[in-house]
Write a structure and sequence with these properties.
Blueprint: H1 14-21, H2 24-33, E1 39-40, H3 41-44, H4 50-63, E2 66-71, E3 74-79, H5 81-87, H6 91-100, H7 103-106, H8 110-117
Antiparallel strand pairs: 1-3, 2-3
Length: about 120
Amino acid sequence: MAVLSHPDRAELRLADVLEAFAHPIRLRIVHRLAHGAERSCGELLPEVSKSTASHHWRVLRESGVLHQRREGRRLVMHLRREDLEARFPGLLDVVLAAAGDDPEVAGADGVMAGARQG
């Protein structure tokens, strides 16, 4: 299995983070992870193909927005909130607030309704 690489906090670059936030599917992932708990890849994006999801996981992981780890055969992830806040104070909160107003990101689908309760 391939090693999952993550940049250190000091290596986070604003351009990479903003690029990661620039796609509606990646914003949807960030929005869904913002509620705290670690989530598996399959439960976060059941509505997209595995190859599409894998591409978005990689972009978010390599930009430093999320952290992935293997748990048996599953990949679980969480938002790197503390690292993002330390490098770019307030950025994540602004992005999440804007994403919450975007129906394409925070639509009332079944996955989002479950995430809001948690």
